[in-house]
Amino acid sequence: MDTTHERAIDQLKGKDRKQPRRPQLILDVGGVLAANLTDFWTSAASAAGMSYNELRARYKQELRTSLWTGELSEAAFWEWLAEACPLLQTEQAQAALQNCLKPLPALALLPRWHRIADIHILSNHRAEWLRPWLSQYRSYLTSLTISSEAGCCKPDPALYRLAAVQLLPGRNTLYVDDAERNLLPAAALGWRTLLADPEGHWVNQVEDLLACST
């Protein structure tokens, strides 16, 4: 005879079968939802009286990875910038950073996409900068995987595996990034990938790809 416990399990299974199998949409932030920090580095270099290429080269050589993995504290980053650009005031640089985090058109589409998919963030970023910026959209986001909290950064496959833990299994998954090198680890996990073009035409493909991704 069927027990009460067994009947409850059968009912739960029946409910699960009736649940829509919502696709999983994973989005980068820079170049996808927000402008990249190019303008920040340009304004910092200009205020410091040095070339953009010179400042960026030093940044990449000395602290890029440690900044995004969280090994370097935010305070230490501002100290480094003050040393690299003596003519640039820290308060001025911090204001420039906030001004450069400009929303791209895709950000306004999150409520629409949320109606058809679970949305996840996978970004090389500082949580101190990104979480406040995304706060008004947090209700549309299922998870946030941010490199400075995770201790690793793209294209390290470890960061993608951390994001994968947040996904519902067996669902169609689409990952969007503006850097082709960052798509490769996603593809290795079996995710469908989409390169975000600078013109933003990629947004027109998202819903179709979610519907047919495998």
Query: What is the number of helical segments per DSSP (H or I, 4+ residues)?
Result: 12
* Coarse shape: elongated
Number of strands: 5
CATH class of the largest domain: Alpha Beta
Summarize the SSE layout with pairings.
Blueprint: H1 4-18, E1 24-27, H2 38-48, H3 52-62, H4 64-69, H5 74-84, H6 90-100, H7 110-114, E2 118-123, H8 127-134, E3 141-146, H9 147-150, H10 157-164, E4 173-177, H11 183-188, E5 192-195, H12 206-212
Parallel strand pairs: 1-2, 1-4, 2-3, 4-5
Q: What features would you describe in this structure?
A:
The chain is α/β, with parallel strands linked by helices and 214 residues long. It is built from twelve helices and five strands. It has helices at residues 4-18, 38-48, 52-62, 64-69, 74-84, 90-100, 110-114, 127-134, 147-150, 157-164, 183-188, 206-212, and strands at 24-27, 118-123, 141-146, 173-177, 192-195. The protein has a five-stranded parallel β-sheet, sandwiched between helices. Helix 11 (183-188) links the parallel strand 4 (173-177) and strand 5 (192-195). Mean pLDDT is 90; it is low at 1-6 and 8-18. This is Haloacid dehalogenase. InterPro entries: HAD-like_sf (IPR036412), HAD-SF_hydro_IA (IPR006439), HAD_sf (IPR023214), PGP-like_dom2 (IPR023198). Residues 1-20 are annotated as: Disordered.
